[in-house]
Amino acid sequence: MQFVEYSDTSDLNAQFAQRVAGLLANAIETKGQASLVVSGGRTPLPFFKALSNADIDWSKVAITLADERWVEQSSDASNTALVLQNLIQNKASKATFVELKTSEDSAFGAEASVSANLNSLSFPIDVLILGMGEDGHTASLFPCSEQIDQGLSSDKVCLAVQPTTAPHERMSLTLKSLLNSEQIFVHLVGESKKVVLDKALAGDDVKEMPIRAILKQDSTPVDVIWAAK
Ligand SMILES: O=C(O)[C@H](O)[C@@H](O)[C@H](O)[C@H](O)COP(=O)(O)O
Q1: I need a labelling partner for 59 at 20 to 30 A (CA). Which of 163, 172, 204, 216 fits?
Q2: H-type alpha helices, the chain
Q3: What are the UniProt keywords, alphabetically (predicted)?
Q4: How far apart are the CA of 131 and the centre of ligand 1, in A?
């Protein structure tokens, strides 16, 4: 794991966007296509805007989410809406979006259809960008959920999850899918996230803080990207 600190979020957003765009451009050059998996939440919003202006061949890029809340796109909680409105814009409007939310009423009836959607993505994921919650969750691998053991050990591509400390059913990529990436970034902003990161690094119980399963492995390179404000 590498820790990269930026002086502030505008420095982080500009440099991180350049780095991600470079990795996607390399993948396009070597494989003819690239896959980018992003997270929702509030942290990535200004970064998405910076990345959407990167000068790469976005028509060769497929984008999806590491996790989605099972809500309609009209909801403020929709990560799909966040990505469509903030990332798949400007130059990046030519990218293809692979839906993680399908028409089923419950995420628990939708694993098969979401897996089918994800089959159109080229694995390994070229760039995976994760966030982290104050409880140490990442994607929707929530320590509080009944599905946490499965999320950390299942061979499935994605898993329906019901957190007990956060609203909405979720669909999450499993740990196995998340680690099937060429490069992982954990994107954090603020002192409170740094406190949670330090706590995660100081322990080993992955069920207590699922982000540890990303930070404390050495099969996939991980950069933690952080700015205090
Ligand atoms: O849909 C989600 O909620 C996420 O993908 C989740 O894993 C998020 O990245 C963290 O909860 C951090 O969220 P913030 O950026 O809002 O702190």
Answers
A1: 172
A2: 9-31, 45-52, 79-86, 111-118, 148-153, 175-179, 191-201, 212-215
A3: Hydrolase
A4: 5
Phi and psi at 123, nearest 5°, equal -95, 150
CA distance 65 to 117: 12
> Is the previous residue joined to 210 through a cis bond, with omega within 30 degrees of 0?
no
**For 54-77, what is the mean pLDDT?**
98
Confirm or reject: Cβ of 42 under 6 Å from ligand 1: yes
Domains and CATH numbers, the chain: 2-227 (3.40.50.1360)
Nearest protein Cα to ligand 1, atom 14: 41
Q: Tell me the ipTM for this assembly.
A: 0.96
Confidence of residue 11 (pLDDT cuts 50, 70, 90): very high
Confidence of residue 119 (pLDDT cuts 50, 70, 90): very high
Q: Is 43 in the pocket of ligand 1 (CB under 6 A)?
A: yes
Mean predicted lDDT score pLDDT of the chain: 97
The pLDDT value given to residue 33:
97
Distance from the CA of 81 to the center of ligand 1, in angstroms? 14
138 CB within 6 A, ligand 1: yes
